[in-house]
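User: Hey, quick favor. My workstation is busy. Could you predict this chain's structure for me?
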Amino acid sequence: MDFENILEMDDRVFEYWIGFTKEKFNSILEEVPRINETRKGCLGLAALLMKMRTGDSDERIATLVQVPRRTLENSIDKIREILLQDFVPQNLGIYQLTREQLLEHKLTIPHGIFGNENNTNALVICDGTYIYINKSSNYMFQKQSYSLHKYRNLLKPFMIVACDGYIVDCFGPYKATTSDAEIMTNLFSEGSALRSYFRENDIFILDRGFRDSISFLEGCGYKPYMPESLREGEHQLTTAQANRSRCVTICRWVVEAVNGHFKRDFKLFRQEYFHRSLPHMMQNFQIAAALLNRFGVRFVDNIYATEILEIIRQQMNLENNLANMVEAQNMNRRTSYFQSITADRNNILYFPILEMRDLILFALGTYQIRQARSYYGEHVRFHGGYRIEVCSEQFHSSEYDLRGSTNGTTLIRGRIKSRHVTRRQYYVYILLENNIPGRTGITEYCCSCLVGRRTVGCCAHVMTLVWYLGWARHQQHISAPAEFLDGVIVREDDEE
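Assistant: No problem, here it is.
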């Protein structure tokens, strides 16, 4: 490979090492003319992008491009400084992004749930991410960089992201011992640039790590939202709490996806960071964020976004009457009420046949559907199938205001093993209206897990039964995921 004439390399080889096509590489050179004015600036840009792409050491990259390591490091340092001065400010930060431009970075579901009709409220998602580092002989730095949560040494960049994946700004790196709430409070302190940029009633989608900053943000006039936490003494969220939590998580996945793009496109941030390069870590992170903003693909609305938003509005204030009945009659402990059956292709006559579109609208997304296949694999591999039961007793649906007809219903119960705790299982209940096709035939559902009472979407355990009974068992072939791993670990006799 001739790195002296890098633009003459084969297109596939170029993109493999650099991570960008030649067209994108040339656009950087055009936008930042100072690179070409620098001696071997084109090679220095290629070496910096190669380092971020592959995560290789300076010595290995120097050997690959056939220049001395010291010369390569000096060239990379110059190009990095030029990018930070000329490229990053044009593609990252609140100073290059007007409020009107921020309001254009929107999606239907987040703004439909939390925004107003006039589209005057900005909506952003905040989160910290981790970059793992090695242990240090500098004891003060070692204590500051060791996370008791992850049991590893790390530093924390912090990001503010629009709901279509555009990175508004990034900050840091912060100590591993600094919570997201502390970072948020510091960034929005009185007189700060962010405090001036964001306005009253702007919306912040957060996770539970920000709980100690909620009152502060509300005092600033903002509207923060985060998933609900369990009340003391409770083992399950209420229906209203679970629904509000689902409205947050259906929007918050964007920041997790952006974090994933950093680790996917730039291996430098995926592996343990070299101590020698730590002084430039945040600068590299900002360059990567600017590159993602400049060349990355923005998230777009799901093709079912309008229908999903309408379903959320319809079901947001519904009570989970089936969960109330299960709790009142203590059905989890009653075996005489239910008759066991085998979930094969033909014996559950009343369960409606569903299309993939029905599953997406039932779950309000695809995450639970992907989880369902893994739960299916867990049960099929070592248990032969699901344990599914049909209620054999008459129950008074009118007493609990169950939705659906009063006499043409079937109640089924399933037991789904936890994916986290081996000995834990969850009870799933699904109420069917007989002879009603499609997802409308499923009138109510609940689960004994933390969010099992939600009526906005469903948990992964409910989806596991719905996915299998309504869709998977009607397919010609459904395989468990990652079957090649089944024989890797030596199993004890009781596991077999």
